[in-house]
Amino acid sequence: MNFNKTYEFSKDFKRLSKKYKSLDDDLIEFKKVISKFPLGSGMHFVVIIEKENVKIIKSRLFYRYLKGSSLRIIYAYCEKKHRVEFIQLYFKGDKENEDHVRIKNYLRNFKQ
């Protein structure tokens, strides 16, 4: 499985990793899970957009030191290329929902 990050995701990650110190390790664990189950398993994964070549998935990112797992991660899964690209990371307390404009821009610029 190949993993990539969008520029916006990298900015989100850098900002949040200052506050949440184990975020690097938590993302590594998350990658292990989606390597086995790219579309996720259980109720903590939701396919929010499904196109012919890509699926956009919203999931909880379990943070080791937060009770209630309040971090959300949005990623795209391209089954043909066996690739995952991280689009957005946010704290549920700061932002209620994902950034739809960012997702639309990602889909507009998506290359197979």
List its salient traits:
about 110 residues, alpha+beta, YaeB-like fold, five-stranded mixed sheet, 3 helices, about 30% strand, globular
CATH superfamily: RelE-like
Number of domains: 1
CATH architecture field: 2-Layer Sandwich
Measured by DSSP, the beta-strand proportion falls in 25-35%
Low-confidence stretches: none
Major pleated sheet: 5 strands, mixed
Share in helix: 25-40%
Shape: globular
Secondary structure topology:
Layout: E1 2-5, H1 7-19, H2 23-36, E2 45-50, E3 55-61, E4 71-78, E5 83-91, H3 100-108
Parallel strand pairs: 1-5
Antiparallel strand pairs: 2-3, 3-4, 4-5
Describe the protein.
With about 110 residues, the chain is α+β, with helices and mostly antiparallel strands. It has one domain (about 1-110): YaeB-like fold. The protein is about 30% helix and about 30% strand. It contains 3 helices and 5 strands, in the order βααββββα. It has helices spanning about 5-20, 25-35, 100-110, and strands at about 1-5, 45-50, 55-60, 70-80, 85-90. The protein has a 5-stranded mixed beta sheet. Strand 4 (about 70-80) and strand 5 form a beta hairpin. It is globular, with a radius of gyration of 13 Å.
